[in-house]
User: Fold Homoserine kinase from Micromonospora lutea.
Amino acid sequence: MPITFVAEPVRVRVPATSANLGPGFDALGLALALHDDVAAEVTAEGVTVTVTGEGAADLPVDDGHLVVRAMRATFDALGGQPPGLAVECANRIPQARGLGSSSAAIVAGVLLARALVTEGDSRLDDDAVLRLAAEIEGHPDNVAPCLLGGFTLAWTEPTGARAVSLQVADGVRPTVLVPAERGLTASARAALPATVPHGDAAFNAGRAALLVHALTAQPGLLLPATADRLHQNYRAASMSGTSALVNGLREAGVAAVVSGAGPTVLALSDLPVDFDAGTDWRLLRLPVDVCGAQVERGRLKHAERDPVAAGRKS
Ligand SMILES: Nc1ncnc2c1ncn2[C@@H]1O[C@H](COP(=O)(O)OP(=O)(O)OP(=O)(O)O)[C@@H](O)[C@H]1O
Ligand SMILES: N[C@@H](CCO)C(=O)O
Assistant:
């Protein structure tokens, strides 16, 4: 059937995510209640992108923008490109910090493109959305919680990514500590060795399994359950402040890990009452987002933007 497009604008709210959670490298992830809002509509020609908030000063505002790239890939998968596109982003997720900003942009793009195609849901079902978004991102551990919400276990089969979402136990209160400096996932992945000792792989397998139990049923086990030997130490040299903070918090009994590829620190249990992050870290207590990405018909309303987000129109 030839592709046709929906005339009205669509919008999507996508959560920040924290991947790995210590031992669950490339598999486990958690959705956090900090969101980007992205709206899009089909136009007669060209591409316009408007960005406010995070990244407003440096993101591309043309076909190079990651939301647009994900939309293009999705339109191809659906059967054809629209004549033109207008995209409006209100960003709150800090970028290149380990909070899943790229997955949020990709999930937003895939869901927006699907919603802009007539009967898009039947051409590309939810399982196919996960597969496509994970393929664009390269791994599924941020994409899965961004789409599904909650605590997700993601894995890849020959046909592509799959995931399940589990409910987090009461008493899990995530806090993120976000530094000013950025760290790109691609550089962090380049720091990993091609092989690891069998004992380290066995250690992580046990701790990742324990983490599923700790996060869903017994948060008192979060400290041993978040220990990792597969990635954090290999990356420590490129984020010494992050590594020192994680180690210091863990010595104080806090279940702290590197969030995603870093350099943000994620604490899954409460910080000491006298904890002072200092001026180098932005501390955000973020509840778990249990909904995942939410699509709505209609333009992003100005009043719904973060009032502190500095505006830039391009
Ligand atoms: N909202 C966005 N709109 C457009 N591009 C984005 C957006 N967010 C991130 N990006 C692109 O993705 C890059 C960051 O991706 P990267 O995977 O390195 O970090 P991250 O996704 O924030 O962290 P992690 O994957 O470790 O959780 C940015 O430098 C930018 O190029
Ligand atoms: N599992 C990924 C998450 C960041 O995208 C990594 O640590 O490289």
